[in-house]
Fold this protein.
Amino acid sequence: MRYRQVGMMDNCEWCSLSEEDRRFLVCESAAWSVFLSDEQDYIGRCILVLKRHCSSLPELTDDEWSELRELVCKMEAALKAVFGAAVCNWSCLMNSFYKESAPDPHLHIHVRPRYDHPVTLGGNTYCDGEFGHHYALHKSAAIPDSDREEVFARLKERLSR
Amino acid sequence: MRYRQVGMMDNCEWCSLSEEDRRFLVCESAAWSVFLSDEQDYIGRCILVLKRHCSSLPELTDDEWSELRELVCKMEAALKAVFGAAVCNWSCLMNSFYKESAPDPHLHIHVRPRYDHPVTLGGNTYCDGEFGHHYALHKSAAIPDSDREEVFARLKERLSR
């Protein structure tokens, strides 16, 4: 059993992040890393990733649950202050792991800031056309690298205060 | 300010639930009520509603955060034991409140159990055709009253142990 667990964790992309993968780390705690998401369908969208391999919320330790609360507070405050998010959409899903025949999810939580106004970055304007409704599942999530860098820099600066 | 808050809470549907609304209460803690959702697009879908008017996760008290953890554990265990859910999708969104000109959300959290097998109730079979993917946003959510009663009874019985 131990051997199997080690083997599966070796295959977990969240357990073996490269320096490049960690490039967009906006903040961290002892137990969690927070990355700017590759998908910027909602400007400032981030992902909270547990540093150890663990498959579900009920398996979190006391400290991990407590740090999660601190990060929820910190991220909501930062996304509201930096980009003027009106509300944050939080979700813990893990569905994609269940495409595998032997699912072995790595706990992570998405936060999508939602906007009642356009967000402007480097001359580009990003609109939350679904504001007041569920986040879109198939919205364009690509933004120019320079805009991504600006989102990252502004968020990281705020979170490092 | 106090007057305004009281006024808005009076208009909050979650602050003024009728006995009929509370008919499908599956369990509760000091701070939270858990109801079987009207929407049964995923069999056993429930909604955790904070008993006091509060608009976001960062505003939860220590006790409310702690009880939320206990309910997450309890609900995941029950949905897995009773219906064989493979994973639970958790989300805290509150988007619909932001359709209003003066949004005043009441904190609630959705849990959608996800299934890698059909669930049979009263001769009807319910499939999670999107298993391994994000939950569907516009799936048929109506089930016969007798099936709803069975879901409620089975879940409540398990949660009362």
Summary: Confidence is low (pLDDT under 50) at residues 1-7 of chain A.
